[in-house]
Amino acid sequence: MELHIGKYEVQKVLGKGATGTVYLARDPFSGKEIALKTIDPAVFKDPENGEVFRLQFLNEASLAGNLHHPHIVAILDAAVQEEGGYIAMELVTGGDLSRHVRADTLLPVAEVLQIGFKCCGALDYAFQEGIIHRDIKPANLMMAKGARVKIADFGAARLNRTTTTTQAVAMGSPFYMPPEVVEGKEPTYHSDLYSLGVVLYELLTARRPFTADGLDALAGKILHEARDSPGSSTTSCFARCANSLASATTTTATSRRSWRRPQSSSCRRRRSPRASST
User: Fold this and answer.
1) pLDDT of residue 220
2) How high is the pLDDT of residue 164?
3) CATH topology for 97-267?
4) pTM for the whole thing?
5) Digit-coded pLDDT (tens) for 229-243
6) Could you state, in order of their start, the residue ranges of all structural domains in the chain?
7) What CA–CA distance (Å, rounded) separates 218 from 210?
């Protein structure tokens, strides 16, 4: 018997996490394949975190049909009920960037530069729509056909048009958290730029700028330690990446500048330095 969720015909499981499942599904009216995110009904009933998860799910569902940008995963439809719900999203089949933060899988420097530029454009668009993502990390940056990057998972987003929903939602991932958020201040567009800068640093070097054994130690490093340079290279492309990272991950939020489009051919076919295999 064929499984249906809402109007959608479920074809197979794409992934399963702690709070729910993502299915490959088909819209019977358009015939298009979509990604269908569902949440386990038990998650909403969790006495400790159930309300937070519900608010995150509602947060993302509320964006259905509201964000239209080539580098943001489109949310097509959503339904949230007392014991569960689903979010129908654009299907992106190229995986996420967490696959490219190891020394043996780093992307070409030119591609990282383009990823940064495209994500800045998408974040700027979202900000103009009153939205701050708040959880930029490699796992939330998806790769579509043609090396097109798309930002996903706006569950932790702050929506300026609503306040009650977002205040209770947990903020981001610790390694990518900007200093002002560590200090308990409200996130801004510049906070997303910082997180993106950390991601790009990781894509270039296969390491994070700050690591620690515990959250308190990590917070201390983010607030007080100087970030290491991502490395050196003879290519002007890599130098531009390093300079842009320095401006994106500065401690002072208002000093952060958006990633810039490469202006010369020096970035073409150049690869980032690889970590030694020994």
Assistant:
1) 93
2) 39
3) Transferase(Phosphotransferase); domain 1 (1.10.510)
4) 0.80
5) 666 544 455 555 555
6) 4-89, 97-267
7) 7
Task: Tell me which residue of 62, 249, 271, 55 sits closest to 171, measured CA to CA.
Answer: 55
CATH topology of domain 4-89: Phosphorylase Kinase; domain 1 (3.30.200)
How, if at all, do strands 20-26 and 8-16 pair? antiparallel
Alpha helices in the chain (DSSP H): 41-44, 50-61, 109-128, 164-167, 179-182, 189-205, 215-224, 236-248
> What are the DSSP calls for 125-185, one per residue?
HHHHTTEE-----GGGEEEETTTEEEE---TT-EETT-SHHHHTS----GGG--HHHHTTP
Return the axis-axis angle of helices 236-248 and 109-128, rounded to nearest 10°. Answer: 30
How far is residue 206 CA from its own chain's centroid? 17
The residues that bridge with 77 in the sheet, in sequence order, are 88
Catalytically active residues are 135
Residue whose token pair is 């500065």? 250
Instruction: Extract the residue ranges of the chain whose pLDDT is less than 70.
Output: 1, 147, 159-172, 227-278
Dihedral in degrees, nearest 10, Cα atoms 244, 248, 249, 255? 120
Q: What phi and psi values does residue 3 have, to the nearest 5 degrees?
A: -90, 135
Token pair listed for 255: 């000093």
What region, left, alpha or beta, does residue 123 occupy, with left being phi > 0 and alpha being psi -120 to 50 degrees? Answer: alpha
27: which 2 tokens? Answer: 């819209």
Angle between helices 189-205 and 236-248 (to 10 degrees): 140
